[in-house]
Design a protein that fits this description.
The complex is a heterodimer of chains A (157) and B (334). Chain A has 157 residues and is α/β, with parallel strands linked by helices. Chain A is built from four helices and four strands, in the order E-H-E-H-E-H-E-H. Chain B is globular. Classes of the chains: A alpha/beta (157), B alpha/beta (334).
C-alpha cells in the first residue's frame, strides 16, 4: 500500500486527564515536535474508553486509534487502566475479524512526565499506518454506501 | 366479508427463514382478531398475491405492514420501497429486518465465498456445478433473477421505518400485545407510540429479567456451556465463565434462555441507548475477567474463539461497522 506517499493518516487519540493528556501538554509546552495526524480527545480515565468510541472513530473515517493511559499500577482511579487493557485486547481481536489490522489500534501507557515517550509513540504509529494505507471505511452514516445499486422507481413484473 | 370497510394488513419476507411468520401464526386464536379487524391483502407465505396487485393499490392504502427479513438482493429492496409507499405504518419485524440477524453474518464474507458455500460446498448436492446466472437468454426471451448485493442491509438502511419489533423471532405474546394495541388504536381507545419506537419489547436488558444472581464475581476462563460439568442453577452465567450476551441484549423474551440454563445469544438486539451492541458486550465481558496481566488476559480471551460471531451474531448489519472489510472490498469499492 506504499502507492500513496502523500497519504496523511487520521488518528484519533484518547488520552487520560491525569497522565497522557498532561504528557501531550508537556510535549506542547516543551516545543517537542510530533506529526499533526493525531486528534486528541481527553477522557477522565482510560477506563472511560467505551469500545464504541473506537468503532465509531474507525467507521467515521479514522485510519487508526491510539488509546493512552497511566502506567499499570498508577491509575488515578486505582485500577481502571487494567479495564482499558482488557477491553483493548478483546476489541483488537474482534476488529481483526472485521479485517481491521491490529496495528490500527494501539494502547500506550504514558505518565504526565513522559512527553517524549508520547511523541515517539505517535511518530511511530503515524508511520505504521502510513505504511498500511488508508482504512477508508465506507460512509454508511450518510444514508447508503456508494456501491448501492440505484433503484428503479417501480417494480417491473 | 365486508372487505372495504376493514383496514388492510400486509406481511412480507425478504432475507429471512420464515420463523417470523410462524411466530405470527403462533399467537393462536388471536389470529382470528387479526382476521376480524384487518383485511389481509398481501402475505406471500400465507396467500397468493402478485406484486402488480400491490402496485395497483393506492399509496398509503395499507394500514399496517410487518416486514421481516434483511435486504439481500434488489428484489427485496424494491419491495421494501413498494411497501413503504403503500403502507401507513411500516414495522421492521424481527431481528433480520431490524439488525440483519443470522443472514447478516454473511457480511463477513465476499459474495464469491457465499456462493461457493451455497452452491459448491458439501451443503449442496450440485454435481454439474450449476451456478445461478442473473440474466439468461432463452428462445422465448430474456429471463432474470434478482441481483445479489455484496452487503446485506437492514430495512431502515433502505427505507424509513415507523416501528421496530425485535426478536428472532419476536415472542408470540409480544406480537399478540402489539396486535391488541393496534386494534385499540383503531377503536380510538389508545394512541400509537412515537414513530421510531421499539415495540413489543422492553427498554432494559435481559439481565433485568433474569432471575440468576449476580455476585460481582470474576473469572479465570471462558467456557462453552456444553463443556461445563457443574452448571450452577442460581449464579449468573457470565460469572460462571459462560459467554452470555444478556448484559447488552434488550429485554422482551423474559430471559427464556438463561432461565432454561442456556446462555443468551442476543436475538432481541441492543438494549435502549446501546449504540453498538458488540462494543457494549466487549465492555461487559472485559469486566468479568480476573487478571491484570496481558498474557493471562489473552489466554482467557482464547476461550472466546470467535469474538465477532459472539458479539455480532444478530447485529452485524445493524452495527456501526456493518460488514467485514472483505464484503465491501470485494465489490471493487473503496
Amino acid at each position: 500500500m506504499s502507492d500513496n506517499q502523500a497519504f496523511e493518516p487520521v488518528i484519533i487519540g484518547f488520552t487520560c486527564n491525569w497522565c497522557s493528556y498532561r504528557a501531550a501538554d508537556l510535549a506542547g509546552t516543551a516545543r517537542m515536535k510530533y506529526p499533526p495526524n493525531v486528534r486528541l480527545i481527553r477522557l477522565m480515565c482510560s477506563g472511560r474508553l467505551d469500545p464504541t468510541f473506537v468503532i465509531k472513530a474507525l467507521s467515521g473515517g479514522a485510519d487508526g486509534v491510539m488509546i493512552t493511559g497511566c502506567h499499570p499500577g498508577e491509575c488515578h482511579y486505582i485500577e481502571q487502566n487494567y479495564k482499558a487493557l482488557r477491553r483493548f485486547l478483546l476489541l483488537r481481536r474482534t476488529l481483526a475479524q472485521f479485517g481491521i489490522e491490529p496495528e490500527r489500534i494501539k494502547l500506550v501507557w504514558a505518565s504526565a512526565a513522559e512527553g517524549v515517550r508520547l511523541t515517539e509513540e505517535i511518530k511511530k504509529m503515524v508511520e505504521e499506518i502510513r505504511h498500511l494505507g488508508p482504512l477508508n471505511w465506507p460512509k454508511w452514516s450518510n444514508g447508503r454506501p456508494d456501491h448501492t445499486v440505484i433503484l428503479q422507481e417501480e417494480v417491473k413484473v | 366479508m365486508t372487505t372495504n370497510a376493514k383496514p388492510k394488513f400486509a406481511m412480507y419476507w425478504a432475507a429471512s427463514c420464515g420463523g417470523c411468520e410462524i411466530a405470527v401464526l403462533n399467537i393462536h386464536e388471536k389470529i382470528l382478531d387479526v382476521d376480524a379487524n384487518f383485511e389481509v391483502v398481501f402475505w406471500p407465505v400465507a396467500m397468493d398475491a402478485k406484486y402488480k396487485d400491490v402496485q395497483a393499490m393506492p399509496d398509503k392504502s395499507i394500514l399496517l405492514t410487518l416486514f421481516n427479513g434483511g435486504i439481500r438482493n434488489n428484489e427485496h429492496e424494491e419491495i421494501a420501497h413498494l411497501m413503504r409507499r403503500k403502507s401507513q405504518i411500516l414495522v421492521a419485524f424481527g431481528s433480520c429486518a431490524c439488525e440483519g440477524c443470522i443472514p447478516g453474518l454473511a457480511n463477513f464474507s465476499q459474495t464469491e465465498q457465499i456462493f461457493e458455500a451455497a452452491y459448491q460446498s458439501v451443503s449442496t448436492d450440485n454435481p454439474d456445478n450449476i451456478l445461478p446466472q442473473y440474466h439468461y437468454t432463452m428462445p422465448e426471451g430474456d429471463i432474470h433473477i434478482p441481483e445479489f448485493y455484496p452487503v446485506l442491509k437492514t430495512l431502515d438502511q433502505v427505507v424509513p421505518v415507523d416501528y421496530y419489533m425485535p426478536g428472532c423471532p419476536p415472542e408470540s405474546h409480544q406480537i399478540a400485545a402489539v396486535i391488541d394495541l393496534v386494534i385499540k388504536v383503531l377503536n380510538g381507545e389508545a394512541s400509537l407510540p412515537p414513530p421510531g419506537s421499539v415495540i413489543g419489547a422492553g427498554d432494559s436488558t435481559v439481565c433485568d429479567d433474569c432471575k440468576r444472581e449476580r455476585d460481582v464475581k470474576t473469572i479465570k476462563k471462558f467456557i462453552r456451556i456444553q463443556d461445563l460439568d457443574n452448571l450452577d442453577p442460581v449464579i449468573c452465567l457470565l460469572e460462571q465463565g459462560v459467554p452470555c450476551n444478556g448484559p447488552a441484549t434488550r429485554q422482551g423474551c423474559g430471559a427464556l434462555c438463561p432461565t432454561a440454563g442456556a446462555q443468551c445469544i442476543g436475538c432481541y438486539g441492543p438494549a435502549e441507548g446501546v449504540i453498538d451492541y458488540g462494543a457494549r458486550l466487549m465492555t461487559a465481558f472485559a469486566s468479568v475477567i480476573d487478571s491484570n496481566d496481558p498474557e493471562e488476559i489473552n489466554r482467557i480471551l482464547d476461550g472466546i474463539p470467535d469474538p465477532a460471531g459472539q458479539f455480532y451474531r444478530f447485529n452485524l448489519a445493524g452495527s456501526l461497522l456493518r460488514t467485514g472489510r472483505v464484503a465491501w472490498k470485494s465489490n471493487g469499492s473503496a
